[in-house]
Amino acid sequence: MNAPTTTLATTIPSEHIRIAVNDTTEPFWAAARQHRLVVPQCGDCGTFRLPPTPFCPNCQSKNLSWPELSGNATVYSFAVVHGFPGIPDLLLVPAVLDLPDAPGARLVSNIVDVAPTDVTIGMRVQVDFTPIADGWMLPVFRALPAARDAE
Predict the structure, then answer these.
(1) Where are the alpha helices (DSSP H) in 1-151?
(2) What is the torsional sign of CA 141, 144, 145, 147?
(3) CA 143, CA 130: separation in Å to the nearest integer?
(4) pLDDT for 106-124, tens place per residue?
(5) Category of 127 on φ-ψ map: left (φ > 0), alpha (ψ -120 to 50) or beta
(6) C-alpha dist (Å) from residue 145 to 28, 47, 150
(7) DSSP label at 48?
(8) CA separation (Å) from 26 to 53, 83, 142?
(9) Which residues have C-beta within 8 Å of that of residue 117, sequence separation ≥ 6?
(10) In the predicted model, what is the mean pLDDT of residues 51-70?
(11) What is the rounded distance in angstroms from the CA atom of residue 44 to the CA atom of residue 108?
(12) Which pLDDT belongs to residue 12?
């Protein structure tokens, strides 16, 4: 079944999204299930890191904490994707997002409910969560209303 044609970006239908959960990534996904955005931070040197890894890339420590973030982000880079296998009318805006609460960490996600022509580098966005397969929640981002009026 094809998704309806839209001029606003969306996500891949939830039944097509599967995530891999392991000891390293489970805290991220468990927090998302509670509508919280967390990021791994080295308990020794303070380095934030995404994607989650078992060792700190800076000091190789295994000591880890998962601070909760505000959910604010800034678009670092993005693409516009027209179509998905079996869903040719799907419109996606995958983006690399800077997380101001976690300096040095970037998250790859989708920007939703926005016309792709309105997305810009430096645009401010806020996390939201959408249900996906197996009862998990996927972090997605929406433009902040003031983002269009920013410099």
Answers:
(1) 26-33
(2) negative
(3) 15
(4) 999 999 999 999 999 999 9
(5) beta
(6) 27, 31, 10
(7) B
(8) 11, 30, 24
(9) none
(10) 94
(11) 25
(12) 85
